[in-house]
Amino acid sequence: MVFKGAEMVIESLRKEKVDTIFAYPGGAVIPIFDVLFDADDINVVLTRHEQAAVHAADAYARTTGKTGVCIVTSGPGATNTVTGLATANFDSVPLVCISGQVPRNMIGNDAFQEADTVGITRPVTKHNYIVTKRENLGKTLREAFHIASTGRPGPVVVDIPKDILYQPLEETYPEDVNLQGYTSPGKGHAGQLKRAVTAVNDAKKPLFFAGGGINVGDSSKIFRNIIEKTGIPVVTSLMGIGALETKNPLNLGMIGMHGTYAANLAVSECDLLFGIGVRFDDRVTMNLEKFAPLAKIIHLDIDPSAIARNVPVEIPIVGDAKIVLEELYPLLDKKDRPAWHKTIKEWKDEAICINAYEGFNAKEDDSSYLMPYQVISTVNRTFPDAIVTTEVGQNQMWTALFWNFKEPRTLITSGGLGTMGYGFPAAIGAAIACKDRRVVAIAGDGSFQMNLQELATAVKCRLPIVIVILNNGYLGMVRQWQQMFNGGRYSSTHLNDRIKADKEDKVSPDGSPDFVKLADAYGAEGCRVRSKSELEDALKKAAALTDVPIIIDCLIEPEANVWPMVSPGAGLDEMVFCIEKEEE
Amino acid sequence: MNHVISLLVENNAGVLARISGLLSGRGYNVESFSSGPTLDPDITRITLVCRGDDTIIDQIKKQLNRLIEVIKVSDLTNKHTIDRQFALLKLLVQPGNRGEIIQLAEVFAAKVMDVGSDTMILELTGSEKKIEDLVQLLDGNIVEIARSGLVSIERGRKHAAVSQK
Ligand SMILES: Cc1ncc(C[n+]2csc(CCOP(=O)(O)OP(=O)(O)O)c2C)c(N)n1
Ligand SMILES: [Mg+2]
């Protein structure tokens, strides 16, 4: 068949079974949008910013495992995708981003809306292309989808000059790819597997460390089987949350700077640490010298460059988590380790005492502000099966620590890059991907303002997203650091004088918007809550909504902190649980 | 320690930028970088000389391997290899010392490529050490140097061929 370039782009989407794209038009991609105008089988979601289009496509991919797709114009359209691409790249999310480019004869001339998209996006993508010949278009798109979704997934940019979009060619979309330099690992090395099995079976205090690779690699089922069979406890990274249900007694929770008490202690005490699909990143290990000092480390990852990069690894296994775990399952012994389990149980009990003491459980009374734990657990009770997205900061850590996750792909959060402004557009992508599930966007008052224009998209698409703003009037996470390490000098972290405003029954005298009025301006629902009963009423209202987003602006204790915390330079077992009062 | 890493890469526009971008972006130390065609017009060979301890070199190789367009990464560091560099040296000469310079060039098997009334250009191929030695001996006379990066090939029957489509 003869396809114009733009038609080939749509043909590629159909052949790759893409039914939803996130897109923003502009001069260089008008030919593509013209074809889309008649493509009834492709749902085009118009976001209000290209960054949001990428985040939405990213969350669409994270929730479904399918490749997310976005289309943007040249120049500013393409440069606006950079943060989104870097976010997806860091967290191994399969994405194909198609960008328009100026016509070939104008490239290099500083033409209107020209940018060196391939040059700019090279370090933040798994791979990228500029199509320089019409004959290469189909092949390039096929390769892009293949590369994005196989091995360690990641974003791929395909930059297409406008004149190619008009050029017709007799062509069929290729089925196969031929990439000499690209293979994706599958099975593990037999010798290493054998060593790993012996090490695990012999260990007295073994511990699994589950990372995002388990969720990305769809291996949580076999992983759960292994845990059930062996009875070995589990800690996770932020991205590994959901690999095992939060409530499982063997799940000690997240490790790292804001890891749980039991998880951080377990890493410090274990004699064998088996990391699966993790990077041992610095927010997880903290002081490397003090990380897992007693443990032999086994590291399974699909990306050889992730292995032995940060911590010394005794048994490296390069392979696909699902395949390797299936190989391991029959070989791992069921074994009683009563002493180890007793210790772990003690840590878990102690943690409950510490938490109660810190008061984040309590405050059922009408103390002036909601506490973060109260908000998250109450929202969780109303929407126990929701997909949850977060922004970045305290809101993200509180969600990771307090929400009960049951399944993989239900916590959608920017881990590696820590992108404020990710969570709300991500909620849009998740809600479009999973029509039958509720999506809760836990937000910070700062982060939400980085992509709040997407209220328009959510309203237009009739998405009943529940946006829960943990409104502390601060860039809270940075404020917490300033409180702990900079003598309480809150430099540029104070968003509004909410306490004062609230007393005067005004909102935001100096900075933040009135989020309820903002919701109203966009045609969304909104309410402000100060107490648990107000929150419960708001959630009742939210639960009844089916086709409109709602903002629940929760006024929380402005200076609530995330605990425990491991200070930079400290070991995981050196946690603090409150602000230490300075001695006079 | 210096490591010699030889790459076979797809001969695409932008592949050099991708490799040099990776090296600079991750803060690796590269002493030399040279690239040229192979028997297969679709494949380019790049020879890198990198500095770093074993873990860094290991990372460099793994990161290069991750690039889609990199077909093969070989570390030639402790292999039985022939290593060569190439240099062009422009010298200022007086009638009195021209003969002496030509003699010195002969000892180093350097070729005289150009002779002017008061200049001379020498071409020299050899190990890095050999080039440095001649440069040092002629130090006072040299006004300009153009040097290539190192290229290296393993001795024996083994060869870095790539299976063809
Ligand atoms: C794009 C971006 N800019 C800056 C930061 C640094 N940063 C990390 S957390 C944070 C504060 C976030 O404030 P808010 O969204 O209100 O969340 P809170 O911590 O108060 O829950 C900042 C500024 C970031 N992560 N991302
Ligand atoms: Mg805040």
Description:
The complex is a heterodimer of chains A (584) and B (165). With 584 residues, chain A is an alpha/beta fold. Chain A has 3 domains: 2-170, Rossmann fold (3-Layer(aba) Sandwich); 190-346, Rossmann fold (3-Layer(aba) Sandwich); 361-562, Rossmann fold (3-Layer(aba) Sandwich), CATH 3.40.50.970. Helix content of chain A is 37%, strand content 17%. Chain A is built from 24 helices and 22 strands. In chain A, the strands form 5 sheets. In chain A, strands 3-2-4-5-7-6 form a 6-stranded parallel beta sheet, sandwiched between helices. In chain A, strands 11-10-9-12-13-14 form a 6-stranded parallel beta sheet, with helices on both faces. A 6-stranded parallel beta sheet of chain A has the order 16-15-17-18-20-19, sandwiched between helices. Chain A is globular. The mean pLDDT of chain A is 94. Chain B is of the alpha+beta class. Chain B has 2 domains: 2-75, Alpha-Beta Plaits; 82-151, 2-Layer Sandwich (Alpha-Beta Plaits), CATH 3.30.70. In chain B, 27% of the residues lie in helices and 41% in strands. Chain B has helices at 15-25, 54-66, 98-107, 128-137, and strands at 2-10, 29-37, 43-51, 70-75, 81-92, 111-115, 119-126, 142-147, 151-154. The longest helix of chain B is centred in the middle third of the chain and has 13 residues, at 54-66. The chains are: A alpha/beta (584), B alpha+beta (165). At the A-B interface, loops of A face helix 1, helix 2 and strand 4 of B. The complex binds thiamine diphosphate (TPP) and magnesium ion. Residues 444-446, 472, 474-476 of chain A line the site of magnesium ion.
